[in-house]
Amino acid sequence: MTAPAPSVRATSPARPNLLLAAILLGVVVVPTGVSGTGVALPHIAADLGSTPSLLQWVVNGFNLTFAVFSLVAGSIADHLGRRRGLVLGGALFAGAAVLSALAPSLILLDIGRALAGVGAAIIFACSGALLAITFSGAAAARAFALFGTAAGVGLGLGPTISSTAIALVGWSGIFWFNAVVIAVSAALVIASNVHDTPAQTGGRLDYPGAVAFAASLTLVIAAVVQSDSWGWDSPATLGMLVAGVAVFGAFIRIELTTDHPLLDLSLLRSARLVGLLAVPVAGAVGFVTLLTYYPTFLSTVWELGTGVVGLLMLIMTVPVIVGPLIAGALHTRGVPVWVILGGSVLLFVAGAAGLTLVGTEENIGIIVAPFLLLGLGFGLGVGLVDGQAIGSVAPERSGMVSGLVSTVRLGSEALVVAVFASALTAGVGGEVRDRLPDSLGAGTREGIVDKVVTGEIGGVDRTVDTGLLRAAFADGFTPLLWVLAALGVVLTVLVSLLLRRPVAAPAALPVDDAPGVDAALAFDHEEIRQ
């Protein structure tokens, strides 16, 4: 009698294209937490209170934890597996979105937003790394171009999605939207049946480095955000800044002495990589600040409704969607990276300068050109920076570099947006105080200042001239645009110079030999000299 053949359980084949679709869906949703929440702030203020410091944390809490945990998430992805991390990040993000939607107070909303930032960090770090090890050649180039486009779609359509959700169900609608879509994304990741193998040579996770990095960035960003309430010269603000810098120094020491660092600092010896990292910093300065707070300008100074503001913001955000495709096409045709990315930063300068011409009277035509320049400038760098940076290292470091790019991007956004918010509060607040009649009591005056700064001008006592308040907001906002333009000039020069420099130490940052990376994503030494 012949023994029966052992049963073999058939395994479902991997479906990388389904994984790509899942990642793109998640990458669309996460950036709406950066760009879309600003539209909801006046509505949140009207419902939960208009305390400026707590309202700032609705945006900055998300940005802070996103930035703090991106580098840690990248390292975890390399050690424990990118697919597993992607599902975990999606579950955390969805749960935090539900908490945010149900929050009965600003404090609980801030907590929910902070938890969502942690989930977002895991999603982004694992997504980029998983793409890098799943696709190769032309497929990798296509995947990263779509990755950049998806991020642009999310960031670009964030204000419009938020405006639509607010019009339908109120401000909580944007968080319900996030929860549902990211849950679908996580389910598709599981259904794709794509698995990855964690790095076997990574050693133990650098827990001391992770704690030191998280603590240092948290202290610095928290000090910047709270400076609006405490004052820049207060002992609390200065103490937190000094402590943050000191802890960051300890982080550097840990990374230089540990065998398995959270961040291999030798990567930063590459002027090219530093130049690439400067591009998202420029995007935070020239684009994200205005994407976050220009809706408040439109609703306060021009007194436009939420739906109209959302439609107008499409002028700025649609170019973000097509920008990555344009950048990919230019690079494929041989245009040097320094020209594409240096030019993208220069567009921020032109856009910010153009917006200084906007006055208190509604004139949609005058914002069209500046908005288009700002959106195109940001779109040209999204995706191209990620693909170039991740493709420049060996696969076992893909999570680390992906996390580093996300950390720089979100860390700069959190810091720059916090500084911009503080400057906006000071500038607009000062203008409003100067123009309010002395007959108003101190408490009434400060209440009006808080409402104007947070965009809740409709809630101001109608005995006060709203035209005066609108002019005060515009006069406090315009000088900040000139500051953004000036910083853009500096960053344009920096990015162009760094990306034109030849690679000093190819062995420390392998480029042409990076396995699994198409030539369109890797740097070519001949191009470097251009």
Automatic annotation (TrEMBL):
Please state the protein's primary subcellular location: membrane
- Pfam families with a match to the protein in the record: MFS_1
Its placement in the membrane is given as: Multi-pass membrane protein
Give the UniProt keywords, A-Z: Membrane, Transmembrane, Transmembrane helix
- Coiled coil segments of this chain: none
Q: Could you list the residue ranges that cross the membrane?
A: 55-74, 86-108, 114-136, 143-168, 174-195, 207-226, 232-252, 273-294, 306-330, 337-358, 364-385, 406-428, 480-499
Occurrences of domain Major facilitator superfamily (MFS) profile (ranges):
19-503
Q: Where in the cell is it found?
A: Cell membrane
Among PROSITE patterns, the record links this protein to: MFS (PS50850)
Report which superkingdom the organism of origin falls in.
Bacteria
Descriptive protein name? Major Facilitator Superfamily protein
Q: Which organism is it from?
A: Williamsia maris
Q: What is the lineage of its organism?
A: Bacteria, Bacillati, Actinomycetota, Actinomycetes, Mycobacteriales
